User: Fold these one by one.
Assistant:
Number 1:
Amino acid sequence: MRYRVVALGGSRMKSAALRAACDDYLSRLRHYAKVEEREVSETRVLPLKDSRLIALERTGEAWTSEQLAELTGRWELDGRDVTFAIGGADGLPEDVVTSAERRWSLGPLTLPHELARVVVYEQLYRAYTIRRGEKYHRGP
């Protein structure tokens, strides 16, 4: 099982600081799980075959870190790849949103897609540390 984070828009990250933050969390996360990052310009290139699609959508479900930890545990047991789709400046196309198995909201704020990637990687890393009882997460 592996995670794919697919960023629509096709352009490389412009912010060196956000790229460094992504790389840091990716490095940490890869101690626990296989993770791929893809940047695509068109939605038809989304890797949907045999993969659970999670659309990052403002109107989606707001998960706590603990809920995400529980979900990652279930996804691992299921053994299917998980693809997180992050929209570009105009968000995700409606057909991607409607075909998603779940919709995840990072909150009601509009975030730049580069920052959303950092949050996804950090939260996946946090989920794994929660599941393993490691000291990173200081929640309830």
Number 2:
Amino acid sequence: MKQTRNETAVITTTARVTAARLAIREARPRRLTSILLWAAQIPLAAIFVTVAVPKLTGSHQMVQEFGLIGAGQWLRYFVGTAELAGAIGLLTPWLAGLAAAGLAADMAGATVINATVLHSTTFGINVWLTLPLCAACALLVYARRQQIKGLWAAIRR
């Protein structure tokens, strides 16, 4: 004789948080890979902080550059805030992959703007700065793709 029972599973908030932490923890890369990623993330975060601060403080050069873009100075504040948040995210272990994705998108946009809108100005040369930063962030996204999937699974729960 088979016995069957109807059981009802109760999932509490604590169980969801624990499951989310486990999913993120399982997505961590191996030790050597993690060390190499952090060795890349820390200087990248420093670069993005040094690039974001002049945008947020209203450096004359940044005001002039964003004036040539023609979208208004709100874009300067938006990009500066996004870059600063991305730099902080790169230094946060569970947000590093997502922050790298945001910074890669930011640098892709900056590369396109520098190559098309600012190509005939003195700021057009910045494409050779934004393109390698975009590539570095894209490599970080690829290396941390399992972490991003784990974070997404944790958010969906």
Number 3:
Amino acid sequence: MPKTLVWELSRWRNAEASRLGATPPIPENSITKPPSAELAPGQMDTDSLPPYEVLDALLDDYVEQDMGTAELIAAGHDPELVERVVRLVDTAEYKRRQYPPGPKISQKNFGRDRRLPITNRWREPRP
């Protein structure tokens, strides 16, 4: 699920709780705090990633819309960012294979709907 959608759903969930007179279940700091891998003090996701609005749009086109590298660049995404993000997504495929099955919340999910070969180090072809 894209990070921007997580924030949107979190705000909605808290608003619904408030509307019903209940305590919002998601701490506001969890929604407003800048994302961080928390691997090092002061490290932020934006140190190595573009803003999530840009990243989520690129990931949606690559994963959900099945666009290849050339199509992503033609759609107006930054070529250097496309190559970097596609490489990161593809090289992390083995990690997704280790996850237990989860609920499907979009048209495609990693796994059954989006299979990439990992045994021969397959990568998305460069334009």
